[in-house]
Specification:
- The structure is a single chain.
- This protein is of the alpha/beta class and 359 residues long.
- The chain has a single domain, classed as Metallo-dependent phosphatases (Purple Acid Phosphatase, chain A, domain 2).
- The protein contains 13 helices and 18 strands.
- It is globular, with a radius of gyration of 19 Å.
- It starts with 20 loop residues before the first strand and ends with a strand.
Length: 359
């Protein structure tokens, strides 16, 4: 049985070994230009012009600077639109500044972005391809989408003396995004990678055989907004692990979902939002207003996962994500360990984080 082994090697104080490699996976990320600069959204304050981009990162910047790699789900396009969006039948179309956005990402040490989501094609595949080009020219690697199915399927690669990673991005299959919007890359269209297709499982299986020492991470965009875990997420996760995935870190529901262990591999079904500047619907849906910053910590001999829970209800935190209060920290912990087949989750109170141990 394959096992993604996670050992506990952090001291009680939470101090890391000097030779530790830290890779941080972050949730849905969009600075909110379309919400702030368009009158059809009910955002009374323009937090970009009134507070500046640094406002959004103030409480979490030290964690970002301490990482060797920060990966985000880039749920928008680099585009300055004029007039109506390309997909006028789509409820929300995201855009952000083509120059400032990559610069801010780099300022906060964000150098990898998945485009395998339901907004990277909001202004046509031409804009998606332009977004890829601009990100890469800025020094930000991107994955999960491309000019062809082959390119969209290619993983993000990261190597250090302690760990080798292959991170696959993609978006779950939805009929409307296929037939109406042509979001998925195929022989006719550029687009995003579809995580539900057999071709992705075959690719993971092939990769595992070719590079058995590489840790394979799947970083899928899936789930219903502000809702609990769906059966198709579970079945897809199991298939991906059966194919060879070692770790799954999902996003897309804008709220946290359950954590599970399956055949020795950890599944974090949804890490919710990172800096995602939409008003949100936490109150009306009753969804947990939490996200997770997930850090893989590796030394030469061991690996572990550390979760930093954050508060993400913009209406209550003035569009500045923050770490949780004591009561919120306990509430989030109780939620994460409430499912089935839950791995051992350890509270590390001094650092305000949780540790996952798969032993």
């Amino acid at each position: 049985m394959r096992c993604f082994v996670i050992f506990l090697f952090i001291f009680v104080t939470g101090v890391l070994h000097a030779d530790t490699t830290r890779v941080m996976f972050l949730g849905d990320t969009h600075f909110g230009d379309n919400y702030f600069f368009r009158s059809n959204y009910s955002v009374k304050t323009n937090y970009i012009t009134d507070f500046g981009y640094d406002h959004f990162f103030e409480n979490v910047k030290d964690l970002l600077f301490a990482s060797d790699l920060n990966v985000v789900n880039f749920e928008t396009t680099l585009y300055n639109p004029i007039g109506l969006p390309y997909l006028i039948t789509k409820p929300y179309s995201h855009f952000c500044d083509t120059v400032i956005t990559p610069a801010i990402m780099l300022r906060y040490n964000i150098k990898a972005a998945s485009l395998g989501n339901n907004h990277s094609m909001d202004y046509s595949f031409h804009t998606m391809l332009s977004t890829i080009k601009r990100l890469r020219e800025s020094g930000i690697d991107c994955f999960g989408a491309g000019i062809s199915p082959k390119e969209a399927l290619e993983p993000l690669l990261f190597n250090s003396s302690n760990v080798s990673l292959a991170v696959f991005g993609g978006f779950e299959y939805r009929q409307s995004y296929d037939s109406l919007y042509h979001f998925y890359a195929d022989s006719f269209y550029a687009g995003v990678n579809c995580i539900d297709r057999d071709i992705m499982q075959d690719k993971i299986s092939e990769y595992k055989k070719l590079y058995p020492k590489t840790t394979i991470v799947v970083y899928p965009h899936w789930g219903s907004n502000y809702k609990s875990l769906k059966e198709n997420q579970i079945s897809t996760a199991y298939k991906l692990i059966d194919a060879g995935a070692d770790l799954i870190i999902g996003h897309g529901a804008h709220t946290v979902q359950n954590i599970e262990i399956y055949k020795g591999s950890i599944i974090i079904y949804n890490i919710g939002n990172f800096v995602f500047n939409a008003p949100g619907r936490f109150k009306s849906t009753g969804a947990k207003p939490y996200g997770l910053m997930v850090r893989l910590e590796a030394t030469e001999s061991s690996k572990q996962i550390r979760l930093f829970p954050i508060y993400t209800d913009n209406k209550k935190c003035d569009y500045q994500i923050r770490f949780l209060s004591d009561d919120e920290y306990e509430d989030c912990f109780e939620f994460l360990k409430s499912g089935t087949n839950v791995p051992k989750i350890i509270k590390d109170i001094p650092t305000g984080s949780y540790l996952i141990n798969a032993e």
